[in-house]
Amino acid sequence: MTPAESRGTVVVGAGILGCLIARESLALDPGARVTIVDRDLVSGGASRRSAGLHFPRGATAEVRELAAESQRYWARLAATRPGLPIHPLGMTVVAPGAREERLRREYLPEARLRPARSLPDGITLPPGASAWTGDGCHYADVPALTRALAARLRPRAEFLEGAAVTKIESGSDGVRLALGTGAVLAAERVVLAPGPWIAAEAWRHLVEPLGARVKKVVALHIEDPPTPEDGVVVFQEEDAFLLPYRERGHWLFSYTCPEWDVDPDTVDPGLTPTHLAQARALLRRYAPGRADRCASGRVFCDAYAPEGAPMVRAVTDDGRVVFAGAASGSGYRLGPAVARRAVRLLHAHRSSGTNRKDEK
Question: Against a cut of 0.90, is the pTM above it?
Answer without folding.
Answer: yes
